[in-house]
Design brief:
By secondary structure, the chain is α+β, with helices and mostly antiparallel strands. Helix content is about 15%, strand content about 45%.
Length: about 775
């Protein structure tokens, strides 16, 4: 009797405290807060689950017949049932030995549609919302969906978008749901100003940040969209710019954003404190790690006493020391820079302290935000993996590599505590950006094909795999055609080896004396030597054929006419050194290549070539954003057996020597056919600058340049009457306009030859374009 009384008391207490009523908004109200003892029920009864089914309800509650339960189990069961989204109301009570679960079902969604949207297509919106056909109708879910869609519209500059819903019953318990969207007007940035800046003008600072004032092309670039996170990133970009140009005390005081009276125009004012400009003072290395000689590390430093202070150079020095120390068997050693400011002469001395850091291991690398690029494409840029020793300099190097890929708008790498004190979680946040491009090139040949056009499509991150593919086709108005296909796998067989191929074919019938066809393929593989140095090995195969020859064909080409194609089979190696700070508008750095090539692996050509190019960029004035560059190139070819053919020799002009056609200078037959030369040299100097009176936001720059070059020598047989074999220098001067457009970089050049030979072919105007979509 006493035992039965205890059971009834427990059940009564449970029933009292478990009188749980949930409103449609998901608020739980407990009928009592009386502490409940553990109770046991014999069965579960489900009421109201007509469409969902009783088993679906039972599977989402934690209370089971024959097992004790408490208020916590009831609360958890109610939460689980609500989380399915199928119910607008849930009640759980106990009647005798029966647990009664009473539910009110949400209506089911028959169809979800979007009305009024033009700027964001249906498929994009469908991917944002969680409300889906055949799913439950839930007010809380719809509210969250509207919030996500508004965020998407704000990201394209439509912050005043209005979104409502319409519901239409189609059958018992089923409805159609329509999101009705009033996209509103596009918000703009009418003013972008700076205060407190003395060393750099507003236009120079505007070129550093990604937020831009609205202009006639902003609808393409979307850079005039205000976003708070984007503004924070701009502040960091300003800090890095100043830190890398000597202003170690720089700080952003405030970023004030106001909305105009019209409600769709922002004004942004960024107030800065530049501080003093510093140079490097004494730079030394100290080591507390036994076996590490600090004197041997001194030569690795990028920082030099007397140079303008640069946080970037400090970081590069730290990474160089860290790599050397880690390779010596000290993976946990850390490099800490210690600055010593001298306010009297505005210098900062830097001491790099190498000591034994805490032992920490990478527990996992967590990647977030990549909607297109695959995880493994990001992971392979890290020189560490799960379980390896944690090294901050390696993390910094991986960040630079990811940014250099060009796949992402933003890359941020942070750390979080792992499962134990010696474990670290590396968190990689990225934001994908478009990586496809459409290119158009144009030129004009006065004596050949007339107007020449080429169109190309390329993708740097094919299918999110990091692969490069390019397809191009072009031609002139005189029956000339060209076709090209290129593909590169940047991590061949899982190693940091870029392997790929190029296939091409061209044909021209513009010359009355003959038709010319060329086709071939190249296999290549590139291996990194250091961070800035790499080497590429190639196998090259080419077929050339001349047909339909008239009587005026030049003698160097006669033995190729109407016979079997001439085959050129060669191998080559290229060394590339690249320290450019930007791929589009380089302000600092060196780009240099040197190539050697041997032909004679079968085929009909036998020669050895060596050629190369060097280009140096330097900022002449940070304040005026004046950039200077100088370049030089040269090459020589010699036969290894017999004579050379015209197409074995070098032919230059066009982009190498502006003001002249491609193949426009050098040895040439009396009828104008070029035969090339055995040796060439070119030099060039250029200065580019923002166009005065034009907002720097438009990314329009002017350029003035001077080019000089020569192509001479000849080792082709049957060349009676050839002219231009002596070393005669040509030169030209010109001006150009560079535009980093929404479609990609465009360039217009006009050059005038000032030293030339009478038989040279001129081409004063050149235009090229590569656009991004």
């Amino acid at each position: 009797m006493k035992a039965g009384s205890k059971f009834l008391n427990a059940v009564s207490a449970a029933a009292l405290s478990a009188g749980v009523v949930s409103s449609g908004a998901g608020v739980l109200v407990l009928a009592s807060t009386v502490a409940v003892q553990a109770a046991v029920i014999q069965r579960v009864e489900v009421r109201g689950a007509q469409r969902v089914g009783t088993e679906a309800v039972r599977s989402n509650i934690t209370i089971q017949p024959g097992k004790s339960f408490s208020n916590t189990d009831i609360d958890e069961s109610v939460k689980r049932l609500y989380s399915t989204g199928f119910f607008s109301d849930v009640r759980i009570s106990v009647s005798g030995g029966t647990l009664v679960v009473t539910v009110s079902e949400n209506q089911l969604i028959n169809q979800v549609v979007f009305n009024g949207n033009r700027k964001i297509k249906d498929d994009k919106l469908q991917g944002l919302v969680q409300t889906q056909a055949q799913g439950p109708y839930s007010e809380s879910l719809i509210t969250a969906d509207i919030a996500r869609m508004k965020e998407a519209y704000a990201a394209i500059g439509r912050s005043d978008v209005e979104i409502t819903t319409q519901v239409a019953p189609v059958a018992e318990g089923r409805v159609n749901l329509a999101f009705v969207i009033n996209e509103g007007d596009r918000t703009k940035i009418s003013q972008l100003t700076f205060a407190g800046n003395q060393a750099y003008s507003d236009s120079r600072l505007a070129s550093v940040i990604s937020t831009k004032r609205s202009n006639m092309l902003s609808f393409l670039t979307r850079k005039d969209v205000y976003n708070e996170d984007k503004l924070r990133a701009d502040e960091e970009a300003l800090r890095q710019f100043y830190y890398n140009h000597g202003y170690a005390d720089f700080r952003v005081i405030s970023s004030d954003v106001s909305m105009g009276e019209g409600g769709n125009e922002y004004s942004i004012n960024i107030t800065v404190d530049e501080g003093q400009r510093y140079k490097f003072g004494p730079v030394t290395v100290e080591s507390t790690v036994e076996g590490i000689d600090a004197r041997e590390l001194q030569g690795l430093l990028e920082t030099r006493e007397g140079a303008v202070y640069s946080a970037r150079d400090v970081q590069k020095s730290m990474e160089a020391i860290s790599r050397r120390v880690s390779s010596a068997g000290y993976p946990f050693a850390r490099v800490v820079p210690r600055g010593d400011r001298n306010f009297e002469n505005n210098t900062i001395g830097v001491t790099y302290l190498v000591d034994q850091g805490d032992r920490a291991y990478v527990e996992r690398i967590e990647i977030r935000g990549n909607t297109r690029t695959r995880d493994y494409v990001i992971r392979r840029e890290f020189d560490i993996s799960e379980g390896d020793a944690f090294n901050q300099e390696i993390i910094s190097r991986a960040k630079r590599r990811l940014e250099a890929l060009g796949y992402f708008n933003a890359v941020n790498i942070s750390t979080a505590p792992g499962s134990s004190p010696d474990r670290v979680v590396v968190v990689v946040d990225v934001e994908d950006q478009p990586t496809g491009s459409f290119g158009i090139g144009a030129g004009y040949s006065a004596g050949g094909d007339g107007l020449i056009l080429e169109a190309s499509v390329e993708e740097k991150n094919f299918l999110g795999r990091g692969q490069f593919i390019r397809v191009a086709a072009g031609g002139g108005f005189e029956n000339s055609q060209t076709y090209n296909l290129s593909f590169t796998e940047p991590y061949f067989l899982g190693y940091r080896l870029a392997a790929g191929f190029d296939i091409y074919k061209s044909r021209t019938g513009s010359n009355a004396n003959y038709d010319y066809a060329e086709q071939g393929a190249t296999l290549r593989i590139t291996a990194p030597i250091t961070e800035n140095l790499g080497t590429t090995f190639r196998y090259n195969y080419k077929e050339l054929e001349y047909t339909n020859a008239g009587t005026g064909l030049s003698r160097p080409y006669v033995d190729l006419v109407n016979g079997s194609p001439w085959v050129q089979s060669s191998v080559s190696q290229t060394i590339t050194y690249n320290t450019l700070d930007d791929r589009v508008i380089a302000r600092e750095g060196i780009y240099a290549t040197a190539t050697q090539e041997y032909a004679g692996l079968g085929g009909d050509s036998d020669f050895y070539k060596i050629y190369g190019k060097f280009k140096y960029f330097h900022s002449l004035s940070d304040e005026l954003d004046l950039i200077g560059s100088v370049s030089a190139s040269g090459g020589h070819v010699t036969p290894t057996s017999g004579n050379l053919k015209a197409f074995d020799q070098f032919m230059i002009g066009g982009s190498d020597l502006r003001g002249f056609e491609t193949n426009g200078i050098g040895p040439r037959m009396a009828n104008g056919d070029p035969v090339g030369g055995t040796t060439y040299f070119t030099v060039s100097a250029e200065t580019n600058f923002p166009l005065p009176g034009i907002p720097q936001d438009l990314n329009l720059r002017g350029a003035v340049f001077a080019d000089a070059g020569t192509l001479y020598g000849n080792d082709v047989r049957n060349t009676a009457g050839i002219q231009g074999t002596s070393m005669s220098w040509r030169s030209s001067v010109g001006a150009g306009i560079l535009w980093v457009s929404p479609f990609g970089p465009l360039r217009f050049d006009y050059a005038v030859p000032i030293a030339k030979e009478s038989f040279d072919k001129e081409q004063r105007f050149r235009f090229s374009m590569a656009s991004q979509f």
